[in-house]
Amino acid sequence: MANAAATLAETAEHVTVSAHANGFAAEIGGVNLSQGVSDSEFARIHQAFLDHKVLVFRDQPLEDAAHQAFGARFGTLDGHINKSTRQKNMPNVQIFSNVGSDGKTTGVHPEKGTLVWHTDKSYTATPSLTTMLRSPAIAKEGGDTLFADTARAYDALPEATKTRISSLRAVHDWARSRIKSGERPATEEEMAAAPPVDHPIARTHPETGRQTIYVGNHSSHVVGMTVPEGETLLAELEVHATQQQFIYRHKWRVNDVLMWDNRCTLHCVEPYDAAKEKRAVHRVVVKGDKPV
Ligand SMILES: [Fe+2]
Questions:
Q1: 27-65 tens-digit pLDDT
Q2: What's the gap in Å between 165 CA and the centre of ligand 1?
Q3: In angstroms, what is the span from residue 3 Cα to ligand 1's centroid?
Q4: Residue spans of beta strands (DSSP E) within the chain
Q5: pTM for this one?
Q6: Which range of residues forms the domain containing residue 222?
Q7: 47 C-alpha vs ligand 1 centroid, how far in Å?
Q8: Which CATH number does the domain housing residue 32 bear?
Q9: What distance in angstroms lies between residue 118's CA and the mean position of ligand 1's atoms?
Q10: Domains in the chain: how many in total?
Q11: Which of 153, 185, 271, 275 could lock onto 107 through a cystine, CB 3.0 to 4.6 A?
Q12: CA of 260 to the centre of ligand 1 (A)
């Protein structure tokens, strides 16, 4: 299988992969996502995704249908628990925007939970494999998306910490993470749809086999520890994983498509002035495996 993928990738040499310093994040060129990608192009993109964890496609003025179709190449699409974000007639496309129907800013940040470090949908039994965003409107100041490489961060942990977390599990709870990030409380329906789950803190990536630190704002506490002890450990791991040497900062351009591997990264959005700046992203999420 690996050889077949390599052969396919070699036939799509027009697809360029320009990795950033230290190999975390890469810019992909030579594809037009609005026309879809061939099997050989997909093989090359998929390998770059595993190698670099965050991929940037510039100048891709996509419609929602093409955005969704590109996401579906990676697996089964997943809607957002907050139904108000779902695109009408296309519920697997979510819109986070502070641009009102009158074209002016609403003054309200569309999702405060994006401002803190997290990995998407870790509060579900099968969290997101990848998230793909495109950017019809960007902020002039602020609004960068930051990523932390939690595989490299895991490798850099002291051996004693690796041993300590090797069998620990964290509870991930969407209702609690909303309260922590200052959003409206979850509704009864939302809580029923997303009850707390627990996942290993040291996660094994299902495709690369690398160990990663799987924490973030949706993680609430640690199974078998008091809540304060667990919160302290989770905070220490997050602080470690989000040190400068593990970070890629994405500065948005209009019509960027940005995708990342939620199994081995954390991300957050830098604050921006939601009263002055118009910012809109359309999002497609692909469901992943049960973390092990
Ligand atoms: Fe997110």
A1: 999 999 999 999 999 999 999 999 999 999 999 999 999
A2: 24
A3: 34
A4: 16-19, 26-29, 54-57, 77-78, 86-87, 90-97, 128-137, 145-149, 169-172, 197-200, 202-204, 211-213, 219-222, 247-250, 257-261, 265-269, 280-287
A5: 0.92
A6: 2-287
A7: 22
A8: 3.60.130.10
A9: 6
A10: 1
A11: 275
A12: 10
